[in-house]
C-alpha cells in the first residue's frame, strides 16, 4: 500500500513548550488510521499540520506525494462540533463547500443526494440543524466534508460530544461510510476502544511532548459489529494500548 500521508520528524513548539517532538508516521492510501493519546499530547496539533492549517517548526509532511505548505485541496475535515450553518438546510449545508469554492452546487445535486442516502439522512433534506439530533448533525458534517470528493478525510474527535449510545451508533455509521467511499482517513480520538474498533492501524502518542510511542495493526475482520467488542483479539488490543499509559487515556 503506497503512503498517502508521510510525517517525518515533525516538531512543533508554542513558546517554550514543545508540543510535538520528532513525530513520524506513514498512512497508506485508503487506510483508516487512528491516533490516540492523553489530553494535551498534541494530537489535534498534528492533524492541523497535516491539513496545512498550522506549520511545523521542524520536519516535513507530504500528502499525496506533495509537501504540505498550507491548506490544500483534496482534504475534508470534521471537528468535534458539527459547526453547521443554522440557516441552511441539511442539503444546503452539505452543498456549502461548492458555494465556498464559487461553484454552483446545483450541478452536483446527484452527489449531494448520494451522500444523503449514504448517511441515512433521506427524509431530512429540508431540516435545519436545530431540528436534528447531535448524531445526525455529525452525519451532515461528514457528508459536507465528503461533498467535494476529497482524497483524505481528517476527523478530530468527531463524536467526542455525543452520548455513549449515539457514539457507538456513529462508529458503525462511520465504518459503513468509509467502507463505501474508501477514502484515506486520519482520526484523532481519546477513545481507545473507538480507535481499535474503527482503524486499520492505531498510532499511540506519548504525553507532551507528543511523539509516537507505538503503532498497532488491527487485524479484525470487517465489517465490525457490536459483537466485535467481545472478540478476545479486540479486548487484547485495547488492553495493550491502555497499558502504555497505565489507563491514563480515556476508556471510551
How would you describe what is shown here?
With about 250 residues, this protein is α/β, with parallel strands linked by helices. It is about 30% helix and about 25% strand. The chain is built from eight helices and ten strands. β4 and β5 form a beta hairpin.
Gap from first CA to last CA: 30 Å
Report mean pLDDT, rounded to a whole number. Answer: 91
**Widest sheet, order of strands:** 6-7-8-3-9-10
Structural class: alpha/beta
Taking Cα atoms only, what radius of gyration do you get, to the nearest Å? 18 Å
Largest sheet composition: 6 strands, mixed
Q: What helical percentage do the residues reach?
A: 25-40%
Number of helical stretches of at least 4 residues: 8
- The oligomerization state is single chain
The strand count comes to: 10
Order of helices and strands: EEEHEEEHHHHEHEHEEH
Low-confidence stretches: 247-252
Task: Estimate the strand proportion.
Answer: 15-25%
Cα shape: globular
Keywords:
25% strand, alpha/beta, six-stranded mixed beta sheet, 8 helices, 252 residues, disordered C terminus, four-stranded antiparallel beta sheet
Amino acid at each position: 500500500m503506497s503512503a498517502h500521508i508521510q510525517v517525518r520528524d515533525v516538531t512543533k513548539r508554542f513558546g517554550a513548550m514543545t508540543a510535538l517532538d520528532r513525530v513520524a508516521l506513514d498512512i497508506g492510501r485508503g487506510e483508516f488510521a487512528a491516533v490516540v493519546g492523553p489530553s494535551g499530547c498534541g494530537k489535534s496539533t498534528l492533524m492541523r499540520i497535516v491539513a496545512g492549517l498550522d506549520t511545523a517548526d521542524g520536519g516535513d509532511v507530504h500528502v499525496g506525494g506533495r509537501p504540505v505548505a498550507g491548506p490544500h485541496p483534496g482534504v475534508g475535515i470534521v471537528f468535534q462540533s458539527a459547526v453547521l450553518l443554522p440557516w441552511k438546510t441539511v442539503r444546503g449545508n452539505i452543498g456549502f463547500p461548492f458555494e465556498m469554492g464559487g461553484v454552483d452546487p446545483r450541478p452536483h445535486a446527484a452527489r449531494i443526494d448520494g451522500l444523503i442516502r449514504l448517511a441515512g439522512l433521506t427524509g431530512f433534506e429540508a431540516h435545519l440543524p436545530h431540528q436534528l439530533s447531535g448524531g445526525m448533525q455529525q452525519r451532515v458534517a461528514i457528508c459536507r466534508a465528503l461533498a467535494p470528493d476529497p482524497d483524505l478525510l481528517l476527523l478530530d474527535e468527531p463524536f467526542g460530544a455525543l452520548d455513549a449510545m449515539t457514539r457507538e451508533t456513529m462508529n458503525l455509521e462511520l465504518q459503513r461510510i468509509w467502507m463505501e467511499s474508501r477514502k484515506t482517513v486520519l482520526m484523532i480520538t481519546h477513545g481507545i476502544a473507538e480507535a481499535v474498533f474503527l482503524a486499520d492501524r492505531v498510532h499511540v502518542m506519548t504525553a507532551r511532548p507528543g511523539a509516537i510511542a507505538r503503532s498497532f495493526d488491527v487485524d479484525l475482520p470487517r465489517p465490525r459489529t457490536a459483537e466485535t467488542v467481545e472478540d478476545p483479539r479486540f479486548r487484547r488490543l485495547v488492553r495493550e494500548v491502555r497499558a502504555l499509559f497505565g489507563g491514563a487515556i480515556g476508556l471510551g
